[in-house]
């Protein structure tokens, strides 16, 4: 048993590559990772690198068929029915050492598969199920790394992932349209006299589209509130890291709102000063959050996620 674990340990070279991937691909998560204990920082970088590898298999493949083949091969590696790459070997060791369940990552793979080709979201239920697969699952993957032992934390971890993905969707409307993807639900577009085609062609009334985006950001706020309420279940130092990650991401939506939710004008980016403010807000919120009385997770937030929840 000892020999098996040692052969699957992440090498220093692999961990260095994982840290570089995190630094190059996500400034927000890199900033948050500085507040983790060193061991947790390396484990988080490894998880991030594997999740990023999954995204890259989908986004950088020469064809949809190739992407599907590559994702299937990776799934077989995770299940142990195919020889594992060093990254997957290292993750499997981490998964066993930390007690991470396999299903959330398999659900993530399913979510990434749904991004291939044309994407159209019909309603809020479909939107939230997609967000769970590609982001709520990451919250579940991170809980053991953060030292979470109370199962009451799990739905809140999912919600923080949902909130951050909803923010991503609002930020990336223009970029996604260029890839023939529209994540804004048709039900919300129709309510404003719009449709998917209007978003894809750019022939869209900016004020009406802004109201749709505003509604999605308001939905995200409900999930941020739940996500932040669950931070109390994370050990203090790691709690700060997740508070920073959540606040920095939420700042994207707040800045987008200040710009009138004009998503077709280009991607909204939070400057360094704004991120610094988010860090201070995270620091200030921790004592207050711990003093607030805990209320059970609102079950209504997970309406429509039946059959998906992996905790």
Can you offer a commentary on this structure?
It is a single chain. The protein is mostly helical. The chain folds into 2 domains: 1-117, Farnesyl Diphosphate Synthase (Orthogonal Bundle), CATH 1.10.600.10; 119-297, Farnesyl Diphosphate Synthase (Orthogonal Bundle). Helix content is 69%, strand content 1%. It has 15 helices and 2 strands. It has helices at residues 2-8, 12-25, 27-33, 38-59, 64-79, 86-98, 103-113, 124-145, 153-171, 173-177, 186-191, 196-201, 206-229, 236-258, 272-291; strands spanning 119-120, 181-182. The chain has a two-stranded parallel sheet with strand order 1-2. Helix 4 (38-59) packs across helix 6 and helix 13 (206-229) packs antiparallel against helix 14 (236-258). The longest helix is centred in the C-terminal third of the chain and has 24 residues, at 206-229.
CATH superfamily of the largest domain: Farnesyl Diphosphate Synthase
Identify the overall geometry. Answer: globular
Q: How far apart are the first and last residues' alpha carbons, in Å?
A: 28 Å
**Structural domains: how many:** 2
Unreliable stretches: 1-7
Number of helices: 15
> In the CATH hierarchy, what is the architecture of the largest domain at level 2?
Orthogonal Bundle
State the share of residues found in helices, binned by percent: 55-70%
Query: What string, H for helix and E for strand, traces the elements in order?
Result: HHHHHHHEHHHEHHHHH
Mean of residue pLDDT values: 92
Order of the strands making up the biggest sheet: 1-2
Strand content: under 5%
Q: Which CATH top level class of the largest domain fits?
A: Mainly Alpha
Gyration radius from CA atoms, angstroms = 19 Å
